[in-house]
Amino acid sequence: MGHLRSGLPGSEPATASSQVGSATSAPEVRLRGSANLASPDRMSLLLGRAFLISVFLLSLVLLLHSTSRLHIRYPTMPKKAAKTGPASPLAVSSLPASLRDPSLALPKLVVFDLDYTLWPFWVDTHVTPPIKPNAQHSAASDRTGEHLAFYDDVPSVLQLLPHAGGPEGVKLGVASRTSAPSLARDLLQMLHLPQASDTDVEARPRRAIDVFDGGMEIYPGSKIRHFEKLQKRTGIPFEDMLFFDDESRNRETEKLGITMWLVRDGVTWGEIERGVDEWRRRRGHQR
Ligand SMILES: [Mg+2]
């Protein structure tokens, strides 16, 4: 019994007489309490409570963990989505000077990732079909009303970049590892590009999907495979390709000889120019 009491802070040493003495003495009360703690019923109760507390704490930890994953997986929706008003015509003459100068080399194929490169969301996790375009086809919305559009500069980049580099132009392609390829294609069909005023004879804005004349490779897996397919289809050497992507893990594609430019907050004209500069530097072309 002594070891039980010693576990009770502040308890007085009990003598043998006090243990068998008056039923109302304080040491006896404490002893009875100790005996109760040790009783099978009391122990079961305590074990049950401990189990419930453990389950609760474990659930709390799991909830916090999944919430943090959700936070990483679902960042705040479009920060820089394109405006939804009518688009004004684009002029090829408005291309940055470094992309208009015929004396400066350009990549023959420029390839874009989709999620967080051309648009500010993951199409496989943010978008809930069905999707429908707005009247101008400058944006779309999904079943939950989520606004889906390119980053601000992307419509003009997709419309004008093919006209850089003189008559040969620049081909465009897509390399995406999304697990929702058909939804991505649907969105590329729905989103239209503003008309190019001084070269494009088309009267109607083109669908974004139509500019990717170098091909679209959209499926999960290493992008090395995506680029091997793009190379086979176009016959363009890897060294003449420039790739824009927001994930550094996709740098593995550089083993093939392509140049990848990491974009941090979506494609802008500034990122395009910096990517082209890097491609020129690696290929030994001076600006
Ligand atoms: Mg991406």
What does this structure look like?
- Helix content is 38%, strand content 10%.
- It is an alpha/beta fold.
- The chain has a domain at 100-198 and 253-286: 3-Layer(aba) Sandwich (Rossmann fold).
- The protein has a five-stranded parallel sheet with strand order 6-5-1-7-8, with helices on both faces. Strands 2-3-4 form a three-stranded antiparallel sheet, with no helix packed on it.
- A hairpin with a 6-residue loop joins strand 2 (132-133) and strand 3.
- The radius of gyration is 33 Å and the shape is elongated.
- 30% of the residues are buried.
- Mean pLDDT is 80; it is low at 1-35, 67-80 and 82-86.
Give me the secondary-structure topology.
Layout: H1 2-6, H2 16-20, H3 26-38, H4 40-73, H5 97-100, E1 109-112, H6 123-126, E2 132-133, E3 140-141, E4 147-148, H7 154-160, E5 171-176, H8 181-190, E6 215-218, H9 223-234, E7 241-245, E8 259-262, H10 269-282
Parallel strand pairs: 1-5, 1-7, 5-6, 7-8
Antiparallel strand pairs: 2-3, 3-4
The structure holds magnesium ion.
The site of magnesium ion (MG) has 6 residues, from loops.
GO molecular function, one term: acid phosphatase activity
Transmembrane segments: 46-64
Protein name: Magnesium-dependent phosphatase-1
